[in-house]
Amino acid sequence: MKSSRQKEQHIVIIEHDEGRLSSLQNILSASGYRHLICASSQERVFEVIRPFQGRIDEIGVFLLAYDLPQSDTLKLSQMLSTLDGHDAIPLIFLASSATIIDEALMAKCHAANAATIVKYPSQVNDFLPLVELAFALKCERDERIVNEEKLVRELSERRIMEARLQYLVAHDELTGLSNRSGLEKALDFAILRCNNFKQHGALLDIDLDQFKVVNDVEGHEVGDRLLVEIAVLIRTTLDNKAFIARVGSNLFQVFISKILKAKALLIAEKIRLIIDEFDFKSGENVYNISASIGVAILEPLEGIKRPSELMSRANHACYSAKTLGRNRVSLFESDNDELVSLRDDAKWVPKIRYALSEDLFKLVFQPVVKLSSGRVSHYETLLRMIDETGELLGPVEFIPVAERMGLIHHIDLWVVSHTIDYIAALPKTQENICFTVNLSSHALQGDYLLPVIKKKLESTWISPSRLTFEITETAAVSNFSKTREMVSKIRALGCRFALDDFGAGFSSFNYIKNFPVDYLKIDGQFISNLAVDHSDQVLVRSMVEVAHSLGKKAIAEYVSNAEILRVLKEMGVDYVQGYLLGKPELELLEDQHISIDQLLDKELDIKNLITQ
Questions:
Q1: I want to staple 568 with a disulfide (CB 3.0 to 4.6 A). Which of 66, 363, 561, 573 is the partner?
Q2: Mind listing the domains of the chain with CATH numbers?
């Protein structure tokens, strides 16, 4: 059964006898083979197959007369077997019954092209099976060659891919520099040499200061081009012994072996200057790029065991350079205040998380007194944390850490939620008492707080007017539009707002005019020495006048003695709070009235005044 592929392929008949040629043509044509090519001599063979150059695989089989005149049978067989480098075309020798076959020659022909010999056919059935077998052999050979070529190609592609992946494991694809993995391996060897052979070194952490500007304004493609140019700049600045790596988006680290601190700082300064003098061009725009560089020294006395330790030191030194104004070099020092603070933060984080999960916070309340009547106007809600010994810790110990380490949002939510629950649980006799709640500088920068306040007010049914939120003046001014928007939304629920630490930044007075708060709470630094400091008196008097002129009430905190209270009363301050009137306690006062006159009649406590 002939396949369509067999019918499409050509049969080349090389026969000088016209009678035998005609007989072969008739047999093959009758059997469905239409593509027959005939040649009567060896010279004619190459003329008829010349058009098949480059597509010799379209020939399915050669039929060759064994006694072809003026022909070298073996040589012709070998030539036909190597056309276009192809060795998969079967060859059938045709011989008459009178032909004397050279067995040795036939063996060589067979070895050259698996050639076989057949007598001229007298019937179709004697000949066609061999032709079909030759086609089947050709098909099998073609398939084998295709599979071999495919396998070779796949193996080549796999080797290329493996080599590429192996390269990318240790290199940055964009710049061609080593990546973090490659740097860590280099540092492993450097630390080993340092600890065993006392060989010094230095790691430079190079952070591009203006990269985000270029990347955001010009796009990522231009940003990538900037990184490549900076990589070239660093590479050309250093000798071949320096190990350069890109370990972050715009962060490079350079390890230099066999170098002491003084020279390492000189090289870092050289790199900083070269980058600072570099002008990066994108179209018509020219950008001045600078770099903050941190330097960490590798030496035996440091006792560094892992690459991550050295990399962390260099990164911290770079952070110090950035906080000190950028575009400078900073050396890592273990007693650096920022590092000490960072270590303390790391110790505090699990304590704060544990306190949040185990509800180990407490609310304490300090009375705020209306100066004209002596009545407790409201209580300021303050936060304490219970430590492992059961003692209450003040917010100054854990709130700054929570703000730096991203935990302040959880604390804000805890304080607001528990304060509202506390108010809701008060007896009916205290249903008119109001409270203020301090919010962090981050509380009004997102949308997470408003839904909680709204939900708690709806579920507890307390009057929103009993709740006043305090934010610092600095927080209000730093993101004025966002803060003002959130304050307006919370006030729309019926709550009130107080601006704490008022006066800490006089440049912000122009913001206060349109800021939607009900109270201005004068910063305690102006109150502590008010009785003896004329400058503080002038400033506080001005703040009270500003508050009243804007239709807001003035609150003075840190009132610690009668003389301060007397001065504040003369100035017309509306509300006061401080240790003189009541310390923060876990319970509210039994009597919500404080005699201002009795407090003013007390003798001035000189010792208390000096310590304050």
A1: 573
A2: 4-148 (3.40.50.2300), 180-334 (3.30.70.270), 344-611 (3.20.20.450)
